[in-house]
Design brief:
The protein is α/β, with parallel strands linked by helices. The chain has one domain: Decaprenyl diphosphate synthase-like (Undecaprenyl pyrophosphate synthetase), CATH 3.40.1180. The chain is built from 7 helices and 6 strands; from the N terminus they run βααβαβαβααββα. α4 links the parallel β3 and β4. Bound molecules: 3-methylbut-3-enyl trihydrogen diphosphate (2 copies) and magnesium ion. The site of magnesium ion (MG) has 2 residues, from loops.
């Protein structure tokens, strides 16, 4: 059976779900939060140590301001209300991406990371204002500044995921088959599962099915 330490998820389809069911994209983002909670619980139940969630890409700034503001308000409320609970559950929160949000949200993010930094049941990497190309170019710039020898092992030290094993599983909901600038380096050998369901409709059963399928896959890593 394949070991499983890290699941990465592109939580896509909120907007379409919201339009279809509530005539509002934002309502879809709100509904998507319930799925986030369900999946966190199941990840712990499955004893998976790392969960990386793509919540906002560097490209998502191209959306209407009203949607962007709503998304960050949602995140702010979520963290304000749930931080204590996450902490009690021994969950570590780690942000990947560049924290250049409002002063209030930046502070809340730093605080959440600090408060939960010693927790160990599950590490959630929340990808916020994250873009893989930016991460890679930035890593190369830093390597160059430090005059560090360019090789794979050294390169990894400059990524925001430096202390984390690469994801064995990538899930993308929302019936779209692309990576959208997510963890391009780290996903080099991931098993990829594209889900038809929109993120708010995705549930524990779908997640467990994917994990089960993953465990039975023959992972070759170039061998036969
Ligand atoms: C993903 O859902 C969430 C974010 C990008 C913040 P979308 O908002 O992209 O939903 P669709 O793809 O438009 O339905
Ligand atoms: C990817 O979804 C980003 C997140 C889920 C946060 P998008 O909906 O932004 O991706 P594209 O633009 O359709 O590729
Ligand atoms: Mg989308």
């Amino acid at each position: 059976m394949n070991p499983l330490n890290h699941v990465a998820i592109i939580m896509d389809g909120n907007g379409r779900w919201g339009l279809k069911h509530r005539n509002s994209r934002n309502e879809g983002h709100k509904a998507g939060l319930h799925t986030v909670e369900k999946i966190i619980k199941e990840t712990i139940r499955q004893k998976i140590k790392y969960l990386t969630l793509y919540a906002f890409s560097t490209e998502n700034w191209k959306r209407p301001k009203i949607e962007i503001n709503y998304l960050f308000k949602l995140l702010e409320n979520f963290l304000s209300n749930k931080l204590e609970d996450l902490h009690k559950k021994n969950i570590k929160l780690n942000i990947i991406g560049v924290k250049n949000f409002s002063k209030k949200l930046n502070k809340l993010l730093y605080l959440s990371e600090k408060k939960t930094s010693k927790n160990e049941i599950l590490q959630i990497n929340l990808a916020l204002n994250y873009g893989s190309k930016f991460e890679i170019v930035n890593a190369l710039k830093k390597m160059n500044q430090n005059n560090d020898t360019i090789n794979e092992k050294n390169f990894k030290k400059y990524l925001q995921t430096k202390d984390i094993p690469d994801p064995e599983i990538l899930i993308r909901t929302g019936n779209t088959k692309r990576l959208s600038n997510f963890l391009l380096w780290q996903l080099a050998y991931a098993e990829i599962f594209f889900e038809k369901k929109l993120w708010p409709d995705f549930n524990e059963k779908d997640y467990i099915k994917i994990i089960k399928k993953f465990k039975s896959i023959k992972r070759n890593f170039g061998k036969i």
